[in-house]
């Protein structure tokens, strides 16, 4: 890891991009159901939407990427692009770390749509990493929403902020409900890193 720069490891889906909100609209079409029939309070794996009898989540995911350009057209989470631009302007190195290549045969579309989307919202980043084990890519602070990712990162000793949604409410903090809160937590961690006091879960907000 480059120790000359403070590195923020950023997940995309559900953190920077409104993955669940965008996928919900596509799922309603794919399932031929009214949008209101699909809960906005999602669970991890989206079982509440009743995907199993239609082929399961992998089939929906493939349709959303290859036929509806999900990774290119999804809306960003409120304030995320602007806050990332502010953090980058302060010298923080933005390292995007996403596991978008977990299904075979359409990696080109996933990668191309991701780059196009980041550019279209002027989201700054130095590095773009497609991988499952996010802890293998060094960062001083990570932000993620998936419970399995947060648990794995913390087990590896990584300082990890939870970005709140209905899939991760059982996880302990540090936690951010909005990108304005992310900005505060990251700046606190940057101050601690600068003074040499940053340690495991060293952010000042431990809300649960």
How would you characterize the overall build of this protein?
By secondary structure, the protein is an alpha/beta fold. It folds into two domains: 7-17 and 76-195, HAD superfamily/HAD-like (Rossmann fold), CATH 3.40.50.1000; 19-71, no CATH class. Helix content is 37%, strand content 12%. It contains seven helices and six strands; from the N terminus they run E-H-H-H-H-E-H-E-E-H-E-E-H. The chain has helices at 19-31, 57-66, 70-73, 80-89, 107-120, 147-155, 179-195; strands spanning 7-10, 93-98, 127-130, 141-144, 160-163, 175-176. Strands 3-2-1-4-5-6 form a six-stranded parallel β-sheet, with helices on both faces. Helix 6 (147-155) links the parallel strand 4 (141-144) and strand 5 (160-163). The two termini are 30 Å apart. Residues 200-208 have low confidence and may be disordered.
Structural descriptors:
12% strand; six-stranded parallel β-sheet; 7 helices; alpha/beta; 2 domains; 208 residues; globular; Rossmann fold
């Amino acid at each position: 890891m480059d120790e000359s720069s403070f590195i923020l490891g950023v997940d995309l889906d559900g953190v920077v991009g409104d993955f669940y909100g965008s996928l919900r609209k596509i799922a309603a079409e794919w399932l031929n159901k009214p949008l209101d029939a699909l809960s906005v309070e999602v669970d991890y794996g989206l079982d509440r939407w009743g995907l199993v009898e239609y082929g399961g989540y992998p089939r929906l995911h493939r349709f959303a990427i290859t036929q509806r350009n999900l990774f290119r057209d999804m809306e960003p989470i409120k304030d995320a692009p602007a806050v990332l631009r502010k953090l980058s302007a302060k010298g923080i190195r933005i390292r995007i770390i996403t596991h978008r290549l977990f299904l075979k045969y359409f990696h080109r579309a996933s990668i191309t749509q991701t780059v196009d989307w980041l550019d279209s919202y002027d989201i700054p980043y130095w590095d773009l990493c497609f991988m499952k084990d996010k802890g293998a890519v060094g960062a001083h602070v990570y932000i993620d929403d998936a419970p399995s990712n947060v648990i794995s990162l913390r087990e590896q000793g990584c300082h990890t902020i939870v970005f709140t949604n209905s899939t991760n409410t059982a996880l302990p903090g540090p936690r951010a409900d909005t990108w304005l809160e992310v900005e505060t937590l990251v700046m606190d961690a940057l101050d601690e890193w600068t003074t040499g006091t940053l340690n495991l879960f060293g952010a000042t907000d431990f809300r649960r």
